[in-house]
Design goal:
The chain is an alpha/beta fold. The protein is built from twelve helices and five strands. The radius of gyration is 19 Å and the shape is globular.
Length: about 280
């Protein structure tokens, strides 16, 4: 369990799909095959069955297509600010859409800001795919891997120091044995927080193949808002927020979503807020 909340916290979520380029080379597939056909082969090689046609593939065989983060900062005067970051910012910009740019931008920002990281299965999946795919692209991001000469100093360590106050994996804290790990969707709905009410993670590859990247970015934003709300709830459970502060923090999230939802391109956030308010009401009745 984490024992503190840092002055800057990034709650984040990554979305990825099977990488057809790696699949073609690894399995020596004909260049004439479409990306969809290559992904089908990758899934077959990954153990697809009739009951499970879309198995979880090894992370290095996948490419990151979107990253979202809710960034919470506490200023020197005690004021708290929230910001929703999504990569790519412009899905029509080929440079921003490239996986290399998404990973490099995100990891450099973490290396520069040194925030407390929070995710859901982030230690086992999100951080590992970021690491593996950074290797694939031959990136160099020394600031992300910086550690103090004296290891007992309370400073970030995102890869080698799992489950610290700087690297919070909510699933590892909440879950127990394999059968008792709740999915993000299950935990969220039980807590009166929106789960997967529009898109499911199993559909992301097909959405990407259809060229509907903005839908994936929107889906990632939904997931990261949900993860953030669960983090707030766990922090309240642990006494890191008293009841009044917890209400204030939730209100800040609602205001962030409402402000962003005023823009026509963010109608999905407006829907998220509506579902959240309905769930809170129904779960309290």
């Amino acid at each position: 369990m984490f024992r503190s909340i840092k002055n800057e916290t990034w709650v984040f979520d990554c979305e990825w799909v099977p990488d057809p380029l790696v699949g073609r080379v690894l399995y020596k597939l004909d260049e004439s095959l479409s990306d969809a056909e290559v992904i089908k082969v990758m899934r077959e090689k990954g153990g697809a069955t009739k009951e499970n046609p879309k198995p979880f593939l090894k992370l290095v065989l996948c490419r990151i297509v979107s990253i979202s983060a809710v960034i919470r900062k506490v200023k020197s005067n005690g004021e708290t600010t929230l910001h929703l970051l999504s990569l790519p910012k412009d899905v029509d910009d080929p440079n921003q859409v490239s996986e290399k740019n998404i990973i490099e931008t995100f990891l450099n920002a973490i290396g520069d800001k040194k925030p407390q990281l929070v995710g859901y299965n982030s230690i086992g999946s999100d951080l590992k795919i970021l690491l593996q795919r950074a290797l694939v692209h031959g990136l160099q991001i020394p600031s992300f891997f910086e550690r103090p000469d004296k290891p007992w100093i309370d400073e970030p360590g995102y890869i080698e120091n799992a489950s610290t106050d700087w690297n919070v994996d909510l699933m590892k804290i909440i879950g127990g044995g394999k059968s008792s790990f709740p999915s993000l969707d299950e935990l969220a709905v039980a807590c009166g927080i929106p789960g997967k009410f529009h898109t499911d993670g199993m559909e992301v590859a097909e959405i990407w193949l259809d060229g509907r990247l903005q839908e994936i970015v929107n889906y990632s934003e939904h997931d990261v808002l949900t993860t953030y709300l669960i983090w707030l709830r766990l922090a309240h459970l642990a006494g890191l927020f008293d009841s009044e502060k917890y209400k204030s923090e939730q209100k800040s999230v609602a205001e962030l979503i409402k402000d962003l939802g005023e823009k026509p391109e963010n109608s999905h956030l407006k829907k998220y807020l509506k579902v959240w308010l309905q769930l809170r009401k129904s779960m309290q009745s």
